[in-house]
Amino acid sequence: MTTQNVYGTLFCSDNTQIPLSASLTDAAAAANVTTDIAFTIVAQNAGDYAPGKTVTHATISGKTFIGHAYIVRQGLVAAVLPIASRTAGGSGNGSGSLPLNVPLTLMPGDKVLAYVDA
What is the pLDDT of residues 34-43, one digit of tens each? Predict the structure, then answer.
């Protein structure tokens, strides 16, 4: 088992961007992807970092294989997030964003979870 760096951004309706980053273990259960400390000083859940912001677009990327990513609220999936692979010939570098099916207004406690594998 190895670890992969997962990066992403949540794009909000007021042009706020929420940068995300985490090192996740391959083939483990879906794990928390928090805000990127290079931009937000402290790693926080997305809902705690920007409560009340409405997420309209997103991108989440893993190095070799990212199976899924989503926002969970009180134990239930609130939104499924677009994903990309950063490998050569992969689905992209994660620099573009794709819309969510339905915009989601963040609430305190909302978490971004992702699953990666080798």
Answer: 999 999 999 9
